[in-house]
Amino acid sequence: MSLNIIDLIKGQLGSALVTQAASQLGESESGISKAISGLLPAIVGGLANNSDNPTVLDAISSAPSQGVLGNLLGFASENTWVQGLLASIFGDKLNGLVNSIATYAGISNNSSASLLNLVTGATVGSVGKYAADNNLDQSGISSLLNDQKGIVSSLLPAGLSLASLNVGDWAKGYKFDNDDDMIKPTPTTPPPHAEQKIEVTKSIADGGTFPDRPTTSEGGSIWKWLLPLLLLIAAGYFLWKQCEKKETTTTTMVGDSTMVDNDSSSMSTDTANTMTTTKTDEDIDLNGTMLKGYKGGMEDQMITFLKSGAYTNAADDAALKDNWYNFDHVNFKIGSSTELESGSQGQLENLVAILKAYPDAKIKIGGYTDKTGDEAKNKKLSADRANYIKDWLSKQGVGTQVIAADGYGSEFATVDASATNEERAVDRKMAVRFTK
Questions:
Q1: Per-residue pLDDT tens for 46-81?
Q2: Cβ(358)–Cβ(308) under 8 Å?
Q3: Which helix (H) or strand (E) holds 379?
Q4: Measured on CA atoms in the order 86, 175, 62, 16, is the torsion positive or negative?
């Protein structure tokens, strides 16, 4: 049985990356997971369909030196390297693929395009690493890609087909039997014990049930087409049952971002559970006004603290300085200090509501980065982001309650710079604390 490229990619697209991508793109995690489950086989199919394309083979061969797997989220933004590769693979079908996945997963076209870049990076990077580890030259890579044609259709989740993805009629070039694989044609001269089986096959054809199908005596077998069909039906049923088992995620943001996605899919049976999230927005009681936020999240913790009287009873700022509340949804676009990711404004509006409900409360904003990059630039970027939020809050009428905004860069980062991008994500955040 040929190697399934999907198995190489599983480790790159786990729950941590899904969570970060959802936060970065302002989408629900179930929508991100569902989009990935559709994009993976489409991209693998595209690579397989271009197994002799020099551009594709060069990209895979050079992927390890590009450091692709160390910066997958960076590929979610516009990247000329991956976009050139996608144009070579899909041509004028590229926009159709983006639109189809967006509709299927219930996400925006922009998010679909970003995920297409990300998943392409994960796929090319994983295949490139495998090729380097196993000393495959471009001929070996081409052979590996070509072998995927026998399995691409079976990897598509329920509700998608190669035709529905607007990638052209690839099915004609995609065989279900890889010749050297498990399914073999019936021998021309059947053994004696197979005689009864031949008679049954012919009786079906003679009876008119499948008059257009070849019988054994005509050089083929009903099992040549029936067995793959049964396997596809079984795979579809299994995926459907897996979807029934998984928890759904409902993320509702107050303000300009409202997302409700009660559907979820998986990119493979082995990762179905890792793609599921248990975080769900709930009603947080602000003195009779209901805010949407995570139970135990920023809003819930701040309101509980204020209601307890702990803020009023705090003697000075020293009693408050170590109690920071991390934003759950507020994120800036990569490298920007003036552009928030979609879905961020809702939690900022929740913070405005809390401050207006407690006009004596005062806060401070903090920005943080991970340990990678130039520290001076990290400090400036985090400070600029903190001040952007401070200025935004001032425009909402609570400026007198926002005492300060500081950027700490990587000063309080806990994850080593050599860790993966997903592991370092915990250090990249915005936070708020009460002050006097």
A1: 888 888 888 888 888 887 665 666 666 665 565 666
A2: no
A3: helix 375-393
A4: positive
